[in-house]
Predict the structure.
Amino acid sequence: MDIEDTLLMIPGPVKVAPRVLRAMSKPMISHRSPEFGRIYDDCRELLQEFFETKNEIVVMSGSGTCGMDAAVGGLIGSDDRILTITNGKFGERFTEIGNRYGRAISVDFEWGMPFDLERVEAALEEGVKAVAMVHNETSVGIINPAREIGRLARKHDAIFIVDGISSIGGNEFKTDEWGIDIAITGSQKCLAVPPGLAIVSVSERAEEALNESSGGYYADLRAHLKSVRKKPTQTPFTPAVPLFYALQEALHMAEEEGFEARRARIARLAEAVRAAASALGIELFPVLNEYSRYSNTVTAMKIPPEIDDEKLRGGMKKQGVVVSGGQERLKGKIFRIGTMGVCSEGDVLRTIQALELVLAKEGVINAPGEGVAAAAKALDR
Ligand code: PLP
């Protein structure tokens, strides 16, 4: 099937609006010019609303992991320890990065299981410079308790780093209220910009704690912070200029819709996916406790035992709808539907319809219809 006719429903990269794609085709400008400075300033101002923060924001040319690398590398030197809390693939990435620069003490939960705050607090007693967690663990579709971990980090005087890559702008995410010193997102998720930008907010407290000698040369938060204070505002190295055009346009789109309204739309879409899953007898993957919730930006579901991953996702793809499978140890066990950015009600209904047709064809359900009906009902609320 032609990619122009394909509906991309994975948890990032996501569908990009035509006006954002068009913005990228503008002529190049100098990245040291006042014109670029104005674009960057406009983005940074709107991003503060997006992140719900007054902290300084820098935009780095690189994917989301570049932001994680910059945060951990900037803070953790060979003599430092960082606490990482994991219940999925991206939490484990923080552990790997922590061990690259210093030492990570990881509190690990099974993939898809919720955090146990007592275990986290016990680990904090050991003394660490920073705590890192993933808010929306994309690999398993769970929202982890950033507010509560933020409180613990403050109590133990640790810098608090949160990967909000698949969360900021989609789920509730309160950088300042939750005491997040470094928050990170990626352009290809809730912003609905093509991949290639890592966006990082940095508190004064985090900036003061940045290590003089550690970290990489390119993803250096100190260099980025220095450059945004220059006139005109700039980046230390040549940025991906077309992506900045796209970011500015996408942020204006979000502002026009309203940041709150956008999150409410995404919440409704996810509610519809969950309602359809329930109607079709499909189990959601994550296990929740009082501190965790189902993600609104990615719904992870168990693959019914009567069908395999290839038939399910392959069958949906034949109908022009692309969804994600499980990663690593969850390969073949779960599938994931993304609802981020400019995803619409029609997109969700088309996705559920494709899912139902495959399930009916493979004999998992008797006839299609109940999933779409349940989703439509949820959207109508
Ligand atoms: N963290 C989370 C929660 C993610 O969802 C992703 C990507 O899916 C990443 C980190 C890695 O981001 P990137 O692939 O942009 O480097």
Notes: Residues 116 and 322 are 34 Å apart (CA to CA). The domain at 3-13+258-379 is CATH 3.90.1150.10 (Aspartate Aminotransferase, domain 1). Residues 259-279 form the longest helix (21 residues).
